[in-house]
Design a protein that fits this description.
With 222 residues, the protein is of the alpha/beta class. The protein has eleven helices and nine strands. It has a single domain, classed as TIM Barrel. It is 49% helix and 14% strand. A four-stranded parallel beta sheet has the order 3-2-1-9, with helices on both faces. The chain is globular and about 45 Å long.
Length: 222
């Protein structure tokens, strides 16, 4: 991996909690990012499931420089270019699409493809991808399943970000596992809180997740 990728993925692992957002309106981007940052969450993934995502990324990059902001649900090489042009810090995809990974590498975009099987992991390793999204995490079998499929590659230093079914009740278990380089949390800024303008609720959810993370980090360093 490049120095830029090592730096970005290092920051994501240090943050350990990545807010995953589906924003319907660009104007919500900055207050949501500010609320997350106030709660201690310093990384976020804006998903390309709505037309607002790219505009939201640009707004956050301009107004909230302390937030490491990337884009998820990247499905095509053209979307890679959009993300790079908008200033995305990193990119994520739900699956392991070689064309998308190749476009990201060519563009210099730190990129984490999605995996769900040993074959996915091996295809990712062919592109020197060692920071991978595990999706859908809980429906696929959860941590026990990840431990099983990851075992043959553990000596290579591969880290995984689970997304899909991760929540306040189980995030402690995920974060405590050495395979996990961070968790993706869509519960941190759910649509109802964003729609109602309850940014204090988002800050509180972020602070709760960070308190769990910090408790784990303190125990592991003691």
């Amino acid at each position: 991996m490049s120095d830029q990728e090592n730096s970005v993925f290092g920051e994501l692992q240090k943050s350990a909690v990545i807010a995953v957002l589906i924003l319907e309106r660009v104007e919500d981007a900055v207050p949501v990012a500010e609320a997350l940052l106030a709660g201690g969450v310093k990384a976020m993934e804006l998903t390309l499931r709505t037309p607002a995502a790219i505009g939201a990324l640009k707004a956050i990059r301009a107004a909230v420089p302390g937030m490491l902001a990337g884009i998820g649900t990247i499905l095509t090489p053209d979307q890679v270019k959009e993300v790079v042009d908008a200033g995305g810090s990193f990119g994520v995809s739900p699956g392991m699409n070689p064309r998308v990974v190749e476009a990201a590498l060519a563009a210099g975009l730190p990129f984490a493809p999605g995996i769900c099987t040993p074959s996915d992991i091996e295809r990712a390793l062919e592109y020197d991808r060692k920071f991978l999204k595990f999706f859908p995490a809980e429906p696929s079998g959860g941590l026990k399943y990840l431990e099983a499929i990851a075992a043959p590659y553990a000596h290579l230093g591969v880290k995984y970000i689970p997304l899909g079914g991760v929540n306040p009740a189980n995030c402690h278990t995920w974060l405590s596992n050495p395979l996990v380089g961070g968790i993706g949390g869509s519960w941190l800024a759910p649509k109802p809180l964003i729609a109602s303008g309850n940014f204090e609720g988002i800050r509180e959810a972020a602070a709760q997740a960070i308190a769990i993370r910090d408790g784990i980090f303190r125990r592991s360093n003691s």
